Amino acid sequence: xxxxxHLPIFExxxxxxxxxxxxxxxxxxxxxxxxITEQYLNYLTALEEIDLDMAGEFLVMAATLLSIKVRMLLxxxxxxxxxxxxxxxxxxxxxxxxxxxxxxxxxxAELDRLSRGREKLFPRGAVIPLSSLGCRYTRPVxxxxxxxxxxxxxxxxxxAEPPDLTxxxxxxxxxxxxxxxxxxxxxxxQVRLAFQSLPPSLLQRSEIVVxxxxxxxxxxxxxxxxKQEEPFGLIELMPAPAGGWETxxxxxxxxxxxxxxxxxx
Length: 265
Description:
This protein has a 3-stranded antiparallel β-sheet. By secondary structure, it is mainly alpha-helical. Helix 2 packs antiparallel against helix 3 (about 50-75). It contains 10 helices and 5 strands, in the order E-E-H-H-H-H-H-H-H-E-H-E-E-H-H. The protein is elongated, with a radius of gyration of 38 Å.
């Protein structure tokens, strides 16, 4: 449960008390800071686990109230020079402090939000060669030379364990015509195939798309039948009924030009 203040002139959360002071609806002189502090210490004692962020916020607000209240209770010093600036109104000073505190609080909340967002991002861990960045060392530090730095780096590399980095997946280029011929050959030798297993390793999205297009073209040519019992279920490929393999044609010339036969139909 959030911390509540119980005073003769106010009952509620500390943030609301600050808001009322800022709106000048409660006189700061009537607020017993010692009693508020005692209530807060009793509140912390009753907690099983102390929230350091919440305790820090209370200390900031209590210290601000105490500082401003002391200024209000102490007599104003006699003006030694008429050219000196007029004394600052403690109530206005408190309002300025409150506004500044709220800005820091909002900035901290925004930084926390950004930090939590970064926790969900995971870099691939690829090694970028320094040569590709155009990095060159031209200014030695102090009495060190480039050779000294090279020797130090070699000595560290000799004892350091190699980092466990995820390798970059090489790009695999497969054309629809090539995948079409592969599927056609597999269906000649097997009665039933699962699309999810064709080819043995689909590492890239482009490979999956190319394989799917090849399957659609086999269906169009009457060389393949497809079965899927439920949405997003297993896709099974089967050879067309007897006669389809003898009459069907791959028409590879159209695929060599970069588009399937009948694509414009």
